[in-house]
Design a protein that fits this description.
single chain, about 130 residues, 3 helices
């Protein structure tokens, strides 16, 4: 992956996050994401389809996209991992708050009020190294 592709991806507000079904087909969803080191962090409802699919396959792919999911760049092969350690979840949340600021704060507030914060699933996405 070229440096300009990474910069283009990371400058956007959304990525299309595609996870694999048991049939092998990918299902894509536009999501917020935040870079931190060599990883990207995102979150979802704990009972969402993408979380269920990640329990079966860590293969995933990402691409820059609009809020509606329209791709604005090429797919990048990745591995995605559900986070379960508090320190890892804290790293993800800090990265997301750093990127989205007041928008994330408002989302967190409503999530706490509705009880959804406790059911959030944080996800780490790592680019697959080329050989």
């Amino acid at each position: 992956m070229q440096a300009n592709e990474i910069k283009s991806l990371e400058s956007g507000d959304y990525i299309s996050f595609a996870t694999r079904r048991k049939s092998g087909e990918f299902v894509a969803t536009p999501v917020w994401f935040a870079p931190d080191g060599d990883s990207y962090y995102l979150f979802s409802a704990g009972d969402a389809g993408k979380v269920k699919r990640l329990r079966n396959f860590s293969d995933a792919r990402i691409a820059p996209c609009t809020v509606s999911g329209k791709l604005t760049g090429n797919w990048i092969n990745t591995r995605a991992h559900l986070l379960d350690k508090p320190a890892d979840m804290d790293t993800a949340l800090k990265a997301l708050r750093r990127k989205y600021g007041w928008q994330m704060a408002i989302g967190d507030c409503f999530s706490r009020l509705t009880g959804k914060m406790k059911r959030r699933q944080y996800i780490r996405v790592e680019r697959v190294k080329s050989r």
